[in-house]
Amino acid sequence: MPTALTDLCRHPIVQAPMAGGASGPELAAAVCQAGGFGFLAAGYKTADGMYQEIKQLRALTDRPFGVNLFMPQPSLADTSAVEVYREQLAGEAAWYETELGDIDGPSDDGYEAKLAILRDDPVPVVSFTFGCPSRAVFDAFAKVGTYTVVTVTTAAEAQAAQWSGADVVCVQGVEAGGHQSTHRDDPHADGTGAGLGLLALLAQVRETVQIPVIAAGGLMRGAQIAAVLAAGASMAQLGTAFLVTPESGANPLHKQALTNPLFTHTELTRAFSGRPARGLVNRFLREHGPYAPAAYPAVHYLTSTVRKAAAKAGDAQGMNLWAGQGHRLAREMPAGRLVEVLMAELDAARAALGQDRGAAEPDVTGGAA
Fold first, then answer.
1. What is the pLDDT of residues 320-363, one digit of tens each?
2. What is the set of domains in the chain, with CATH numbers?
3. Which parts of the chain span the membrane according to its record (predicted)?
4. Minimal CA–CA distance to 107: which of 79, 141, 66?
């Protein structure tokens, strides 16, 4: 077993696990082959669907890779707010000539079945979103040689992950696209500006935990990677930057929207899933975001049919267009080529500071500053 997560790849670049189809075997394989670290997103997939993608990825590359799991969410005790939201979305369903989804889908995302598969047929890395597993889960993965990563949005969450036995924390700044990986969904924090930017959060986490840190949130250029490595991260995780690559499974409308001048900015919203997520501001987000309840994954199931119908109709105004704050910097090129370009930019940024790649390698053994 390697002595550090960074021993699994040549470059300190992690391709984020983006659920919903973007992060499939083709994208992960391309990133791995280029020397980065690729991830499969198991969220919203069945346990067997996850396993089939793992087999596909293994056929595409012999390089190490990771699999991301969603933590189980509390069952929705009161559905009244979701039913009110259903009434508000009736016009959307009629417009797209579809029915609203059934909110009674599973809240555990097949978690236990996925854990069982990953223990029986281990992969190099497993990461967790929306919470932190028990020590027993971490111990079981340690026994089979699997590194574990927990995504965190506060220093307290990072400390809890370290105490529980995680090998690494992925620090997610508020700039990140897609869902905020808070361990406790607090609707009272909505609109308060409570989320921290990546550099501020990274500094806090580095002074709180002694395990290695991956930095995520709005990173689109090699110079930004250099900045987070200099700030103490071991690796940098990029999601939006890889969305527009041909290997990405994102909808073409989603890819086009990232650099379309029509979409000028992003916001955090509950409109599509019931959990705060950053996406491009479109009609659906503007009209329904202010009224969406804190009810994940019920709202995700409720809106799923409308989102699919909007995509089928070619209407980006009715889709969830997840994107980080740096979305306008997206570059359409193959994923492997993007890794090469990012590394060239990283080297240039280091050279500008009188460094070289070897001299500037970050501390990957962890340790508070």
1. 999 999 999 999 999 999 999 999 999 999 999 875 555 445 45
2. 1-73+110-248+330-369 (3.20.20.70), 79-107+264-320 (no CATH)
3. none
4. 79
Determine the Cα–Cα distance for residues 46 and 198; give it in Å rounded to an integer: 32
Tens digit of each residue's pLDDT (9 = 90 or more) over 162-201: 999 999 999 999 999 999 999 999 888 887 777 899 999 9
How far apart CA 106 and CA 60 sit, in angstroms, is 31
Measured from the Cβ of residue 191, the count of other Cβ atoms closer than 10 Å reads 11
| pLDDT class of 106 with cuts at 50, 70, 90 | confident
| pLDDT above 80: residue 269 | yes
pLDDT at 1 over 80: no
CA dist 330 and 315 (Å) reads: 21
Count of other CB atoms within 10 angstroms of residue 46 = 14
What do you get for the CA distance between the two ends of the chain, in Å? 26
pTM confidence score: 0.93
Find all residues with CB under 8 Å of 293, minimum gap 6, and list them: 81, 82, 84, 85, 270, 274, 299
Pairwise CA distance, residues 9 & 35, whole Å: 6
Q: Round to whole Å and give the CA distance between 299 and 220.
A: 30
Residue 198 to residue 210: CA distance in whole angstroms? 18
Instruction: Give the count of alpha carbons within 13 A of 322, CB side only.
Output: 27
Alpha carbons 339 and 336: distance in angstroms, whole number: 5
> Tokens 């889960």 sit at which residue?
137
